[in-house]
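Q: Convert this sequence to C-alpha cells.
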Amino acid sequence: MKSPVELKYITLAQIIGCCLVILGHSFPFVTPYPCVLMEGCRFLYTFHMPLFVWCSGFLFAHTMQTRKTFAQYASQRALKLLVPYFLISLIGLVPKILASSVLNDTLNMDAMEIVRAFLVPREGVWGHFWFLPMIYLIGVIGYLLDKMSKKVGTWIVITLVAFALSFFKSDVLGWFGVNDVLLYFMYYSMGVVSDRMAFNMKLCNWMYLVGAVLMALALFFTITSGVGMIHCRNTVIAILMIFTIVQLCRMYADRTTIQRKSLIAQTYQIFILSWPCQLVVGVVVERILHMNWMIFIPVVFVTGVVMPLILLKLMDWLEEKIDVRYMSFILGR
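A:
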C-alpha cells in the first residue's frame, strides 16, 4: 500500500481545504456584516467541500485501499467517521435542546425530530457534522465501484454519471445524507481519475492560475439565476478552484514543513472539534461581548484552527497518563 506521506502537495491541499471549511463557519450568526464578505462566503462554499472530497478520492486511489477486504475498509472508515458522528451527536443532544433559544434552533424532545437529528445529517444535532456520513458512504460506494473496475475509462464514465445524478435532490434523499452523496460523488471520482492518470502534468505558470480564478469569479457573478445553471456554474467553479489550489500546493509543498501526524492524520478530528469550539467562542463574542464582525470573524476562525490542535495535544497527554483511549475512540482516532 502506497503512503500519502510522499504526496506533500495533497497533504497541503487537504490542510487548506480544512482551513477553508473552518473559515466558512467563521461568519457571525446574527450580526450583520458587509455584502462583499457575504458574497465571498458564498463563493467559498462553491469549492471548499469539493476540494476536500477530491483529495479523499485521490488518496483512496493512491493508497490502494481496495487491497483491504470490504469488511476491513468499511469497519475502519466507520470507526473514523460514523462513531464520532453518532457518539458526539448523542453527547450533544440534551445540551442542544436546552440551548435551543440561544442558538436559534428548534430541536425539541419529539421522537421523530430526534430520529431525524441522527439519520438526516443536515438536520443533525451538530449541523456541520453532515459531511461525516457523506464521506463514509462515498468511500464505501467508491470501494465497491473500484473493485469492479480500476480502469481510467470506467471512472471517467462514473464521473459523468455522477454529474448527471448530482442534479437530483429531494426531502426523501435527505435521509442518511444521500442528497450530499449525489452532489459530491463526482469530485471523489475526479480525484480517483486524477491519480489513475498519474497527475504529473507540467506545473502551470501564474498567468494560468490567475486566469482560472478570474474565470471562476466571473462565472460566479454573471450566472445568478436558474437552479440548473447555478449548479453547472458551481461545478465549473469548483473544478477551476481545485485545479488552482492543487497546482499552488505542488509549487510550494517542498518549501513547507508538514507534520503528517499532527495535521493530515487528524484532519477529521480537527473538523469535528472546530465547530463546537467556534460555537462556544462565537456565542461569547457575539451574544455576551457584543463584538462586531471585524472581531468575530478572525477570533472565531483562529479558534477553529488552534483550539482543536490544543485539545488534541491535551488529549494525547491525558490518555498517556491514564492509559485509556476513550476520548480518541469518540473522535475516531
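Residues 1-5 have pLDDT under 50 and may be disordered.
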